[in-house]
Amino acid sequence: MPHAEPSVPDAFDVGRVSYAIFQLSVAHKGYAASLLRRIGLHPGQELILMHLFSRDDQPQSELLASIGVDASTLSRALRRMQDVGLLVREPAEHDRRVMIVRLTDKGRAMREPIAAMWRDLDEVTQRNLAPQQAEDLTRAAYAVIEAIEHAARTHEPGDEEPR
Amino acid sequence: MPHAEPSVPDAFDVGRVSYAIFQLSVAHKGYAASLLRRIGLHPGQELILMHLFSRDDQPQSELLASIGVDASTLSRALRRMQDVGLLVREPAEHDRRVMIVRLTDKGRAMREPIAAMWRDLDEVTQRNLAPQQAEDLTRAAYAVIEAIEHAARTHEPGDEEPR
DNA sequence: ACGCGATAGTTGGCTAGCCAAGTAATTTGG
DNA sequence: CCAAATTACTTGGCTAGCCAACTATCGCGT
């Protein structure tokens, strides 16, 4: 039965917590993807739309900073979303390098489906957790994120302390 | 500064826990990828190798079941790993459909680098966590995984209760 | 025995995501 | 005032990952 703690090769012992996070990522992302497919979106597109719901007519560069994905990934995702009519891009007046991203009516119409998708996802996510556990999980997640970002920031330039 | 709880559009409120997991996934996977790059592996390949460290000469189908990825994804990953000399595949004697996957010396040599990578990853992951928090996080992760797998199992065939 | 279904893998086609290199426009500096 | 650096974005090239469709082989049942 492929449940909790499946047949884990011994080597995974050294990274039990990371392995759990890894498995959680796969399951969570997979479930989100299946929910997104039902509303006709590809993973990641919902993030772009949600940021646009918060503030429309946004330069592509700001979306980039908010979402944290590679510029090329965003560029291509936006092109595809434009192709299916979710949004429009047009060069800014004041700076012709800048592309302003604007939702179409079709894009705006995704607001409720996306919110419903998050509700469903979070409901399932918390189904086996006590409220306090959910709270702790969230807090621990951000603690880990902070540790990772700090580690990446420090020894990205000068790789690793030379032992 | 993009730390914990960054500028989260209001819409994310409905899925706070899921959004935290999502962000954790991105950060954790990104850091793992950067560590893997240093030892010349692509994400996912380390899992294949680790399962082979546990049991070599394994049919591709068993690897498939252990790892839980799509058959086509595994097929192509194995081909690429064979191309760079990490492993070899040859048809089984008794059943010519089956491909037996075997590590090469070069593949076996990855054992220590991969273990070191997991140690590094888990060290960073736990850096901001008390031991009890790490334990709780692991437990919560598997609880969420179980809920998601159950949800996927139940309403994948008959999509959603019709309201 | 023979055909049909199940099983094992592969290939095609698509998106997400990364890095590296390239283009265009704007800002900075000598 | 014009060249050099910077910024904004795109394109090329690659891997991971999914689904769908296909091939080949094996096993089963009539």
From TrEMBL, chains A, B:
In its keyword annotation, does this UniProt entry include Ribonucleoprotein? no
Q: Which UniProt keywords apply?
A: DNA-binding, Transcription, Transcription regulation
Q: Please list the coiled coil stretches.
A: none
Q: Which InterPro entries match?
A: HTH_MarR-typ (IPR000835), WH-like_DNA-bd_sf (IPR036388), WH_DNA-bd_sf (IPR036390)
The reply on keyword Transcription is yes
Q: Give the top-rank taxon of the lineage listed in the UniProt record for this protein.
A: Bacteria
Signal peptide limits? none
Please name the PROSITE patterns in this protein's record.
Answer: HTH_MARR_2 (PS50995)
Name a GO molecular-function annotation: DNA-binding transcription factor activity
> Which stretches make up the HTH marR-type domain?
14-146
User: What is a single Pfam family found in this protein's UniProt entry?
Assistant: MarR_2
For this protein, the record's PANTHER family field holds:
TRANSCRIPTIONAL REGULATOR, MARR, TRANSCRIPTIONAL REPRESSOR OF EMRAB OPERON
**Name under which the protein is recorded:** DNA-binding MarR family transcriptional regulator
Q: What is the lineage of its organism?
A: Bacteria, Bacillati, Actinomycetota, Actinomycetes, Propionibacteriales
